[in-house]
């Protein structure tokens, strides 16, 4: 059975002191929901309570009643988990008709294994040489509230911002969805961002690392924590991942060389 969380090393800068340590991060894996042998959707999720997830998704999405589920097979693969949900004949016909009417990746027609492979695809390697100081990391986070008018009005929106050395935040976009906010920012940039950092108000999941690397960012700064899979992907892609960032400190999980005065000192648990 897959682990729900794992400890990962990082360099923490708090109270004016940098220390090496470890932190427990939640697991994040690709979970395909397949009905009668055909994938309906792929979600990134914590690999726990998956039978509940399969039943709840089926019911909440209006795909079938619980009594129309004949069985659920949880199939673990090197790429993630395929939840193979088998419906009664009547429910299967309704699900297939609904699936044909959907647009986009939900109705992609891929098998579970192919869909899982797409969800966990490797992020492009980044080579940007942007370099920050500890003070700049904290200043970038402190500047975020000035670029969140929608959040100020609603308390229900995420922000993605473009930070550049010597200029601060030069562009920001908001949306109720953290992924949408990043997509909007990348669309507004009009090019790659090797000379800038991506600053987020959200936690960091594997798909946000993929988006950041594809857009050419070399540094990602987030207010909340990353998942274990996000850290692993960022490390492999050469992305500097900074999370738990506040105006008084942050945790750097990968490639700390881009924070030029982040000096490692005593190891702490």
Report on the architecture of this protein:
There is one protein chain. By secondary structure, this protein is of the alpha+beta class. It has helices at residues 50-60, 89-101, 112-119, 134-143, 149-154, 178-189, 206-214, 228-237, and strands spanning 5-14, 17-26, 29-35, 38-45, 69-77, 80-87, 158-164, 168-175, 197-200, 219-222, 240-246, 249-254. The strands form two sheets. Strands 2-1-12-11-10-9-7-8 form an eight-stranded mixed β-sheet, with helices on both faces.
Keywords:
269 residues; alpha+beta; Ubiquitin-like (UB roll); Cytidine Deaminase, domain 2; 2 domains; 4-stranded mixed β-sheet; 8 helices; 12 strands; disordered C terminus
* Rg, nearest Å: 20 Å
Q: How many strand elements?
A: 12
Helix content, binned percent: 25-40%
Number of domains: 2
By CATH, the architecture of the largest domain is named 3-Layer(aba) Sandwich
Element string (H = helix, E = strand):
EEEEHEEHHHHEEHEHEHEE
The N- and C-terminal alpha carbons lie at a distance of: 26 Å
In the CATH hierarchy, what is the class of the largest domain? Alpha Beta
Major sheet details: 8 strands, mixed
Offer a concise description of the structure.
With 269 residues, the protein is α+β, with helices and mostly antiparallel strands. It contains 8 helices and 12 strands.
